[in-house]
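Reposting from the mailing list since nobody answered there.

I have sequence plus structure tokens for a pair of proteins and want to know whether others read the tokens the same way I do. The first protein:
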Amino acid sequence: MKRVPFKIDFLFRASTIIVYRFLTTPDCLIRWFCDKSDIVDGQYIYSWDGEEEIATIIEDLEGEYLKLQWDEAESDEEFLEFKISRSPVTGETLLEITDWCDDDEVEDQKQLWSSQMNSMKKEMGG
């Protein structure tokens, strides 16, 4: 299967800093994303059902941007990216996620991210 990037956007009533914290701190990540999380030497170590996956931090700008690359990515071009900004119209926080998947799984992955973001919103109250 061909791997392709896709983007999906979400709005939050929470501040950009709170959204950023929920994406970057182990205590917040375990509330919506994974069973266990740690940050060691510029890498996130995520655990689901006892299985670990590692993502290296490529770029990190507090409150605005996080770009990771999974150690087991099929290509060096693949990444997971979070862009955080304020909507000039509504004042809400906009989170744009760029991720990669097989070309026949884009809709499934978008649904997964939607489910994850709903969990995150419930945990942060916004």
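The second protein, same order (residues first, tokens after):
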Amino acid sequence: MRAWLGLVHHPVRDRAGDVITTAVTNLDVHDIARTCRSYDLAGYLVVTPIEAQRALVERILSHWRTGAGARRVPERAEALRITEVVPSIDAAVARVAAAEGEPPRVIATSARPTAGVPEVRYEGLGRELRDRPGLLLFGTGHGLTRETLEGVDGLLPPIRPRAEYNHLSVRAAVAITLDRLFGDGGD
């Protein structure tokens, strides 16, 4: 598998649409790592420009990779081995390119359609990302900024629940997306 996942904490939008930086959460680090490992992704990159937040992620990773957490819950240690923290989306792209030997195709996600950004279908993408490097970007807060979306190679269609309410947690959106791409019912 040559697919990577980036959880972006900056630049993202707040409720009013302003550009912000969100805080890293312990649950996102653990749960998304476990989902990425379950679907055999090559890596999971937590993207935050805040040095103190990167240090926090490194402490979490150390605890679960080599500390008491690794001895207590070895399955979590295995999942967190594919997790890294980087300061920017550009650094995430560079990290994937360095590991894969070529630049990744960057695919974003959003809870709403975005005019002007080419849509990528789920069908075929999972198969493609088994053979070609790809970086799937998920935004925290109220999603990736318009500028970020305009700079990607494609945008997956939004997850559309049957209810009018559509405000999934990023952990749920990651799990649904990875299952559609790489699960038994995917490519």
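Reply #1 (J.P.):
I read it the same way you do. The domain at 3-182 is CATH 3.40.1280.10 (Alpha/beta knot).
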